[in-house]
Write a structure and sequence with these properties.
By secondary structure, this protein is of the alpha/beta class. The protein is built from 17 helices and 29 strands. It starts with about 25 loop residues before the first helix and ends with a strand. About 60% of the residues are buried. The model is unreliable at about 1-20 (pLDDT under 50). The structure holds beta-D-glucopyranose (BGC).
Length: about 725
């Protein structure tokens, strides 16, 4: 039962941490210190708070005013979850981060980060506010589309690559929202009550992996409370864990409003920057009908430093972190200039690649009377296809709130109920119509369109066609949670839905010779009609090239290879909390470690589609698993993966570990994966090394990671419920 190798992650292993390793580190620190020595108290104060919301001359979310006399540029920031969220700049709308996660492709995550950052920089932004990585504990969370699913290892690794990509463009990367910020209901006041082990093994882990391996320079703190105190004012989270244990040398930034409640508490806990801040702490402002809060890091902080309640050394540390991050990112040497042009062709290419790599073929059955699965459709065939609903004639849907990306050329769909409040309640639809793309790829087909509002007419058209393709959408936004994972209808989302989508699909499925459902969603959805449709493709929010990407997958120009980054349950009642309380401000993480697929495994609940699931137009077989313990505590898992079908394809081979019983863990956890490309008939010996820390548990008594001796069960397969091959490994 004893640890062979305590897995406290040494700071030295954080060599990749942003600017803190390698030969540059002393130079960056020395440069920052030298500049700090020249600064007045007022200048220091100016550098640790934003100047207000909506005041930046180049738009975006925030600006910390620079100090020209010292060569410190304005530190401008823009939201950029899935592309730059600034109106009127023609930035590229990429697929949402949940789609990126479904690609399970680290190098694509790097490209995604780099491509968005190139646009941020061209527009003059110093800092990108993408990088959301809160886990999908509650898939009804309105921001699920902005994050990367329910597994900390998947999300953390992709986040690391995204951050590296971002910072390769001299743009400071952000990771957010630290921590346990997993639903939008009462987001300023809810209190996430999470035990230490659960916090460390699940909710902090994507941040830990992402920061240690990806080195983002900025960490945005959440609005909510964690275990009774505001996240932004938690010295345990800010200083003990993030700065001291993980060795984070960058900036700790507050989320935009109501995150800070006390100057001295926040400053002394370790907060380094208040956003959106204001030019005067003592005056509250408004943003439309929204009352902006008073702020705390301007005059109040100066007074606290002068009174000694916040030590000057703490203020100096805030400033040093800012300066060293500016130096390390390359921004000091080369600040961005606004007004550059966006390379739309390059953006579109990355957007389309991410869309195509992320689509998940959930189901693909043989229709009655056929011999082959319904998908892929044959592009050259003279066939009749009816496309139904989801505004597929106009475009593809995207998410709202700060994770939105404005359409370049106007919204393709008009809102049904006008919006009010700070966030729009109307979805943005990019003019990338699947209907047009289907017509283009299948020139010999007769393709008609019905808008879905008349289910009877849709069923009749489906009965007369060779294939019926129904598009269904689910809109999500910051600020509001979904009431259910049921596909929204005209009652639950009156601004964006004109009819009952489930009823439409049910009617079409009953009549169609062959039925295909294409989902454009930000989270999981339930599918009461699943048994009656032949095929289902999850396209997520596929971005500006969504139309062609969907057509390429439907017709087999692209062989789908995405895998679910979160479990799709059979019903809302299978989720770990029955509903999201509108009134109870305590969000009790009483499920502990049983979150995401761990919940379904531990509770013996059969999901609709398990975490990691995704089909292909070819088939893969796994054989010959072997496991080997290495001297550094890692484990190498080897196996043979064969493409047994007739087309080239990629398989995300997933490695799960079951820990010794004494660990008290849910049945399995994802510990590694590899996306393997194989030609038809090709087989490959795959060897995946599982890092020692992926096999460790958090000991809440010693407050350390530990690895237990005992028997570990390694399973490889194509989903979390596919135990294609397994091997027991005894470790002492
Ligand atoms: C969101 C952040 C966002 C910020 C700036 C906040 O409401 O929670 O994710 O970066 O606004 O727009």
């Amino acid at each position: 039962m004893h640890l062979k190798r305590p897995l406290v992650i040494a700071l030295v292993t954080a060599g990749l941490l942003y600017g803190c390793g390698g030969d540059d580190a002393p130079t960056v620190d020395q440069q920052a210190s030298a500049l700090l020595a020249k600064m007045t108290l007022d200048e220091k104060i100016q550098l640790v708070h934003g100047a207000g919301y909506g005041v930046s001359p180049i738009g975006g979310a925030g600006i910390v005013k620079g100090i020209p006399r010292l060569g410190i540029p304005d530190i401008t920031s823009a939201d950029s979850a899935g592309g730059v969220n600034v109106e009127g700049v023609n930035a590229t709308p990429y697929p949402a981060p949940i789609a990126l996660a479904a690609s399970w492709d680290p190098s694509l995550a790097h490209d995604y980060g780099a491509s968005i950052a190139a646009e941020l920089r061209a527009l003059g932004f110093v800092e990108g506010l993408g990088g959301g990585v809160n886990l999908a504990r509650e898939p009804r969370n309105g921001r699920t589309f902005e994050y990367m699913g329910e597994d900390p290892v998947l999300a953390g690794n992709l986040l690391a690559q995204r951050s590296l990509g971002t910072q390769s463009q001299k743009v400071i990367a952000t990771v957010k929202h630290f921590a346990a910020n997993d639903q939008e209901t009462n987001r300023f006041t809810s209190n996430s009550v999470v035990d230490e082990r659960t916090l460390r093994e699940l909710h902090l882990l994507p941040f830990e992996i992402g920061l240690k391996d990806g080195g983002a320079g900025n960490v945005m703190w959440a609005y909510n409370l964690v275990n009774g105190g505001k996240a932004c004012e938690s010295s345990y989270l800010l200083t003990d864990v993030l700065k001291n244990e993980w060795g984070f040398k960058g900036i700790v930034q507050s989320d935009w409003f109501f995150a800070v409640t006390d100057t001295v508490r926040a400053a002394n806990a370790g907060l380094d920057e208040e956003q959106a801040g204001s030019s005067d702490d003592y005056t509250a402002a408004t943003l439309g009908s929204f009352s902006l809060p008073v702020t705390y890091f301007n005059q109040k902080l100066k007074a606290a430093v002068q009174a000694g309640t916040v030590p000057l050394a703490r203020l100096d540390d805030m400033v040093l972190r800012k300066l060293r991050t500016l130096y390390a990112s390359g921004v000091m040497a080369s600040p961005p200039t606004a007004g550059g042009t966006i390379n739309q062709a390059a953006g579109n290419a990355v957007a389309q690649k991410v869309a195509e790599q992320s689509m998940v073929l959930l189901k693909n059955a043989v229709a009655s009377g056929d011999t082959a699965s319904v998908l892929p459709l044959t592009a050259s065939a003279a066939q009749t296809i009816v496309v139904i609903g989801g505004h597929a004639d106009a475009g593809v849907i995207s998410g709202g709130g700060s994770g939105a990306v404005p359409a370049r050329d106007g919204n393709a769909v008009t809102c049904l109920v006008p919006s009010s409040g700070i966030f729009s309640t109307c979805a943005t639809w990019y003019k990338s119509a699947p209907l047009a793309a289907i017509r283009a790829i299948a020139p010999n087909a007769t393709v008609t369109y019905l808008d879905g509002s008349d289910a009877t007419a849709a069923a009749a058209a489906a009965a007369a066609a060779d294939v019926a393709i129904v598009f269904a959408t689910q809109w999500q936004t910051e600020g509001t949670d979904l009431s259910s994972l049921s596909l929204p209808n005209n009652t639950t989302d009156p601004a964006n839905q004109a009819y009952d989508q489930n009823a439409l699909i049910t009617a079409v499925a009953a009549a169609a010779k062959r039925s295909v459902v294409v989902l454009e969603t930000g989270s999981a959805v339930t599918m009461p009609w699943l048994a009656n449709v032949n095929a289902v493709v999850e396209a997520w929010y596929p971005g500006v090239q969504g139309g062609p990407a969907i057509a390429n997958v439907l017709f087999g120009a692209v062989n789908p290879s995405g895998k679910l980054p979160l479990t799709f349950p059979q019903s809302d009642s299978d989720l770990l909390q029955a509903s999201i309380s509108a009134t109870d401000l305590t969000v009790n993480y009483s499920e502990g470690l049983k979150m995401g697929y761990r919940w379904y495994d531990a509770q013996n609940i059969t999901p609709l589609f398990p975490f990691g699931h995704g089909l292909s137009y070819t088939r893969f077989s796994y054989s010959g698993i072997s496991t080997r313990s290495n001297s550094d505590g890692s484990v190498t898992v080897g196996f043979t993966l064969k493409n047994t079908g007739a087309r080239a394809g990629a398989e995300v081979a997933q490695v799960y570990a079951g820990l010794p019983a004494a660990a008290g863990e849910p049945p399995k956890r994802l510990v590694a994966w590899e996306k393997v490309q194989l030609a038809a008939g090709e087989s490959k010996a795959v060897s995946i090394t599982v890092k020692p820390e992926r096999l460790s548990i958090w000991n809440a008594t010693t407050h350390r990671w530990q690895t237990l001796s005992g028997s570990y069960n390694f399973v490889v397969g194509g989903s979390s419920r596919d135990s294609a091959q397994s091997s027991l490994l005894s470790r002492s």
